[in-house]
Model the fold of this input.
Amino acid sequence: AYRKALELEPNYIDGHYNLAYALESQDVQGAIEHYERALALARNQPDGAGLEMVTKTLRDLGSLYYRTGETEKAADYLTEYIQYVPADAGIEEILDQITSVPSERG
Done:
């Protein structure tokens, strides 16, 4: 249904976001592409209208990158997300795991 909606309206932000979410478990690259598109479209909304979509897409895209082991990209998206939602302890914990370098001292 989301693909059909996007055929009719390629700039449908929610369609890209929802399709990305649906694709996460079966087509990670497809999910990333649709999250990226939703994020780009949401950032271009006038007067901050897309801010809620920006924040949840940053969170979900960063989390997806983290789960797939792409920690540098995850850190970029989650660091930006945490600027909007500083009280998200779960994301703070992920960022701490990404940015902490394990000590090799004995």
